[in-house]
Fold YfhL family 4Fe-4S dicluster ferredoxin.
Amino acid sequence: MALIIMDECIACDACREECPNYAIEEGDPIYIIDPDRCTECVGHYEEPQCVEVCPVDCIILDPDNEETLEELKFKYEQLMEEEN
């Protein structure tokens, strides 16, 4: 699954700086996560870094974007190919 930022977001910018896939953007009024770029940090870290640093715990799994571990790994590989 991709992650989603809930309305409790305080727009502190902590999550955006931690995202290795540049999937988090400043929104109005809260930040948003691009589900096409979010791999839940698969390929980079054991746990999603945005969730780890969020001071208000407002980042959760997006029930509208369910993905298997294999799909997240494939998305990670595609993103890495784009960067090269």
Notes: Residues 23 and 31 are 10 Å apart (CA to CA). The chain has a mean pLDDT of 95.
